[in-house]
């Protein structure tokens, strides 16, 4: 695939849509569909074939999966996060430098996301101390974003999980952006 090949741009667009969809699903319901991780891994295979790195890519992805499975067993990551991170590993060249950069990006973006959620929890707890008037009218129809915001506030009050798939997807996008043909 050359930089001027429109198929390459379309391929990158499909991968981008899959990553965005995974992040939105993780925010909305805290689940990343297996089919999305499988689609990303499947879309990565031709990229690894093109650079003759499929076998090393699969070995690195297997190693990453094994390590992340330990994190899942310790309840530090969700199963969908493990599968998404593994699939995204196939998108990145299977060398130590590129894989290390990707992992560091995931951790940095994940840390930033954690800080945002800590701030959100503080805001929600402060607001929760004020008296809320009782409303007997049916609730107004809310937009999707308003419903997600309300759900995130509930999760913050109840110490819900952080959508780490957002950090993984964002890091994959940041990592792959320079490679997208223009």
From TrEMBL:
All residue ranges annotated as the Prepilin type IV endopeptidase peptidase domain in the record: 14-119
Cellular component terms (Gene Ontology): membrane
Chain ranges passing through the membrane: 12-33, 54-74, 102-120, 162-180
MF (Gene Ontology): aspartic-type endopeptidase activity
Keywords recorded for this protein, A-Z: Hydrolase, Membrane, Transmembrane, Transmembrane helix
Enzyme Commission code(s) on record: 3.4.23.43
Listed name of the protein: Prepilin peptidase
Organism listed in the record: Acidiphilium acidophilum (Thiobacillus acidophilus)
């Amino acid at each position: 695939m050359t930089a001027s090949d429109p198929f390459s741009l379309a391929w990158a667009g499909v991968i981008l849509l899959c990553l965005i969809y995974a992040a939105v699903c993780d925010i909305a319901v805290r689940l990343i569909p297996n089919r999305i991780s499988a689609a990303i891994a499947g879309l990565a295979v031709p990229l690894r074939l093109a650079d003759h790195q499929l076998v090393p890519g699969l070995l690195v992805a297997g190693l990453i999966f094994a390590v992340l499975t330990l994190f899942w067993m310790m309840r530090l990551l969700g199963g969908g996060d493990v599968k998404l991170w593994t699939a995204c590993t196939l998108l990145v060249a299977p060398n130590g430098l590129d894989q290390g950069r990707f992992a560091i990006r995931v951790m940095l973006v994940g840390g930033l996301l954690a800080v945002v959620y800590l701030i959100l929890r503080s805001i929600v707890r402060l607001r929760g101390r004020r008296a809320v008037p009782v409303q007997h009218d049916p609730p107004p129809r809310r937009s999707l974003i308003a419903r997600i915001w309300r759900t995130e506030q509930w999760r913050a009050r109840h110490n819900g999980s952080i959508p780490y798939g957002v950090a993984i997807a964002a890091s994959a996008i940041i990592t792959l952006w320079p490679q997208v043909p223009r």
